[in-house]
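dumping the sequnces here before i forget
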Amino acid sequence: MDTRTGLPVVGMVGGGQLARMTHQAAIALGQSLRVLARTPEDGAALVAADVQYGEHTDLAALRTFAKGCDVVTFDHEQVPGEHIRALAADGVRLYPGADALRCAQDKAVMRQRLTELGAPVPRWQRIGSVDELAAFGAEVGWPVVVKAARGGYDGRGVWLLDTPDELAAVGLEPADPAVELIAEERVKLVRELAVQVARSPFGQLAVYPVVETVQRDGICVEVLAPAPALPQSRALAAQQLAIDLASALDVVGLLAVELFEVPGGGGLVVNELAMRPHNSGHWTIEGARTSQFEQHLRAVLDYPMGDTGLTAPAVVMANVLGGADGGMGIDERLHHLFATDPGAKVHLYGKQVRPGRKIGHVTVLGEDLADVRNRAARAARWLQEGR
Amino acid sequence: MDTRTGLPVVGMVGGGQLARMTHQAAIALGQSLRVLARTPEDGAALVAADVQYGEHTDLAALRTFAKGCDVVTFDHEQVPGEHIRALAADGVRLYPGADALRCAQDKAVMRQRLTELGAPVPRWQRIGSVDELAAFGAEVGWPVVVKAARGGYDGRGVWLLDTPDELAAVGLEPADPAVELIAEERVKLVRELAVQVARSPFGQLAVYPVVETVQRDGICVEVLAPAPALPQSRALAAQQLAIDLASALDVVGLLAVELFEVPGGGGLVVNELAMRPHNSGHWTIEGARTSQFEQHLRAVLDYPMGDTGLTAPAVVMANVLGGADGGMGIDERLHHLFATDPGAKVHLYGKQVRPGRKIGHVTVLGEDLADVRNRAARAARWLQEGR
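..and the predicted 3d for all of it:
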């Protein structure tokens, strides 16, 4: 507890944009997020009052950081499970816990757990050799999706292979013990969906509306909330799936379930899990009564959950990626954007612009999805390309 | 400019809740508010990364603070005008400027300027002696409102006197050169209204919907947005008045015009002016597409203004005052409130609880004003009294 305010101290390991936006939410709740950042240039370190520096892989740094925190949570999924267990053994409250988090850290573990739980997943297999991949491909049909079990994000660590021999061509060596691989059938997908649910230690659950996520080159560029023209029965099934997984995996905090909508059958297949605020939920800052960042804090603090209802019939979030340097600075681009669309809500993460890097997002709300979507895309393009 | 982000640095003199909430808005715009606080316990100092310490009356401290700021603005109106002029002479951009700000610092100057501009004001007079007060009261009728020209807020520095002799009874001495007094007729008021307008250096204006402010013991306890049952012609007149005053007084940033609604005639009388984000605009964080804090930043940075439209038909903000200690801590009260109303949005300022002190506010939005108002009042009471 912060004795100056009588309110709890939440520590977040990692100083990226998720910590940055969680700090904004913490301020409203009377708190100040404690951040373990790597450098003073980290997005959250630029704006938070209570910052410590250290590596998330350094147990000593984590121990120092956890002192005086009421609860410790995470901006990313890269903290080693053994460190989380060691901190828990010290008596530190950490959410999500190591067991839950493993399913977001390791795709092989995640696939295994989901299979055991009877959740809908693509056919998949651990791959220890080119021969195993060849046999799997012969069974499910080529092309096959190959993923590194650990360490991938935003399309990295995922390959679409037409033949088993391409494994070597993309630089993968299944015999390397450091690189565990899984193969998955390539599902025919209608589109990608995501659903977020928050769960507290008490077990309270609060689920957000199902959204559609639009990817380009493996990176999410756009989120449409609610997912347009999604039958209510399928939306409810997706929400129920997220609720069931959060409970079964004992997640505390936010769980994002990334889904493929597929033709026929149940119509849903789980793609990925994330156990933290997630890009697919940035729209909630203005688009839901309770933002995912506030909700994550409420969940890990065991506060009752906030209202997850929409604030407008149509909400679109578009990511802003670093563009090629067009000679126009980000401040000038903001001027132009604000002149073009007084209703666009901008979130910049304080990052150096590098091509393809997520440097912010914009959210637009309104009555008509097509209009809102056009505005969001235009706003993101302005910030990205200066035109 | 912050060379790490390519975005401007706004400095705010004063580290209270207005700076705290402005920092939240700055984060979204990719910035980090620079704060001149008095102590590390100031609401904004608890949460901002870029804090300097010093008194707002210390020109040397202000000069150090202003270095590297693209623009300097204010969390309160207590910075001496001569210091603002000295900084401006140094080349510092300060908004609002000293001339504009004088009308928010000195009620006699404000009344004089408004009278010259033909704005609707109560009959008023500077009071230099008990005899002058007696003559004024004889003319306008008793009771008479007496105000200290400078330094009052939240009902302090305002007295309602039934006779001229009561001046001595409340401890006032008109001959004291440090205490300039004005007297005003007590207007028959239907209710109190407020309207906020933002103005940029370029001269762009963006006005918010007119709100009703509900006072108790001279302190605003509740704001209803939009002001219920206000005829459109009167709402437009109030907005036009705010626009005209912002332009005539050359305000840059936010101007809050506090109004009395009175029977007959034009129906509006100006009570007070504030040139900064204002308590009557806290509802805009969730209730308007652009919060007053973001709008103030946009205005002082000469960004085009944001959309001031409502996000719901009825929005109610209720202030949370420090209550008598009921044995239940603020964190426990939060738990109970969140369990009672998942849709109530809470803003706590990180302040030590003292009876009657504004320690936060809650905002509730919805379709039905009566329902929303009940929920906001109940939420504020929970945080205030723990029941």
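Chain B has a mean pLDDT of 94.
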